[in-house]
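One such shown below:
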Amino acid sequence: MNKKVLLLILIPSLLIAGGYLFIRYTLGSTIARDGGKNATLTKTDSASAKQALSLDLRPLIIQRLQQLVAKTSDNIYELSVGDMKVDVLSSNASFQNVVLKPDKKRADSLRGLGLAPVETFAFSFPKLEVEGINFDDVLTEKTMDYKLVKLTNPVFEIYRNTNDKKEKKEDFTQRFLKEMKKLSVQNLIVEGGKIIIHNKGKSNELKDVFIDMKDILVDSATRNDQSRFLFAKKASLSFKDYKAAVSKGQYNLAIDKVNVDVSEQKLTLGNLSFNSPLSKKEFSSRQKFSKEYFQFSVPSITLNGVDWWKLVNEDEIVAKEITINSGKLLIYLDRSLPPKSKMGNFPVHLLMKLPMKINIDRLRTNNLDFAYEEYNPISQQSGTIRFSNISMSVANVSNRTGKGLSPVTVSGNGLLMDKIPVKADFTFSRENYKSGGFTASISSDKYFDGSLLNSFAMPMGMVRIEKGELQKIQANLQGDQLQASGDITVLYKNLKLHLLEKDKGEKELDKKGVTSLVANAFVLKKDNPKEGEESRKVQAEFKRIPEGGFFMLVWKTIMTGTLKTIGAPARIANKTVSNTR
């Protein structure tokens, strides 16, 4: 929720209440100038006189509010107030059935001239309550002090327009402080609100909006007070059931609940999901080129140490830490489709391309499950690589540019195929992010049966591991978006494998008997290290192909080193890169 949305909630409430009281202060001179009867307003000690005055002025107050809205909005907005009630004895006032909406003809006229604002607004609410009004001060002072301002079931609508010209930024506080010295509200409450965002013919809703702001103060001293959140010392807000269609309806973004605690500098997202309503097969059938299919869900995301001033005033997400608890991520790729270049699409490239500036000290994930599934048109089968129970720490998650920037660093561990412990560390340069420069260190030192890898080695690599114990894997890589290279160490014992092929019309993969026999008997090195010898460490290189992404480059470089270690041709690593190879 950006600054404009929050101001949309705060300003109309205070404008109506404050405008009412401000008009009570200025109406005497206005009426005198217009030749009215009440040329002078003075303090009144009689409660009945105050009550009568309030009733007599009610139509004029509403009319002046309408004039004020029209004047301050360049005649774009129209205001209607169904009713207004004042209880002078208890110092309370209420407004019923208030509606603010844009004047369509005026908005269209400004749009034709390229002068319309980027966003226009509409709001309505059945009831606005104001408590703790000092009516005597209102008549003589340019201050507004309230105990409570409460909106019940308001509806706020935002219309995003197309405007080629740069919008002039208007400062509400500057305009307000020209007329008044101070606005003070002990408590502002919004209950049961709804925010509807209209954009390019589509609408998204924030439901059950709740806002509780305390100790609001608008004056010359607090105008740029970075310790306040929209002029409030303390604030909390929440909304539920956010849903939005993304990428032309191919994905749905949903968040069950969002909670903001300003004093704790904390933002919590509950049950976030980014899923496609399409099946993997349906998604692929709609693509012209090979494209990843995503399914992502997480029960909780928490941002701590949020800089509200940066978020509200500069549209930048600045926080000390983001924590993602649990969650599942699936990526699927159908390689039967024509490949498409993914140059400029490394993780650091995507970070720098984000439409909003971010600067997060650290991002942590706990107990994340990840699966990468790929359909190989050569084997005509899909293989899946799984990592479970992933814990990860990412430092310097920022798309700020300049010199002397610390790299993005990633450190994590998880279980490959739910059983094999793997550790990984990555660094990504931000100073030279365009080149995609990175380093990677990946290791596993737990013994495991090589056949555990067959679920993806067979369909994706066209190799079946018959037997063999893998004892250690260590890869130290460096590279950029064009290539990767490094030292690869793979320790194993008694390895035996078969190369596979797919016969036309057959569903199963068959082993290449003669080739496998020769490979196992004469070519493949069954052990590393051989008995009585030192272990073999090889140098591996892999030149990235344009349609391959970052993780494919890392995977294929490690695969090249593994093939060299066991004595198999390194060209096998290129075998299933795409349907054209």
User: Anything to note?
Assistant: The chain is about 25% helix and 45% strand.
